[in-house]
Amino acid sequence: MMKSKVGERFTEFYEKWICQLDVYLQQLLYVSKDSTLVLTEADRQALVWKLTTHYKEYYTVKWAAAHEDVLVFYCPVWLSKLENAYSWLTGWKPSMIFHLVDSMRNIPVPGPCLAELTEEQVRKIEQLRVKIKLEEEKVEREMERQQVAMADRKIVELVRIARRIRNEELVVVVAGQVEGLVEVAVKGILTGLERVMKAADCVRLKTLKGVLDVLNPSQSLDFLAGTCMLQIQLRKWGQRRDSQKGLIISEMYNDLTF
Question: Which parts pass through the membrane (predicted)?
Answer without folding.
Answer: none
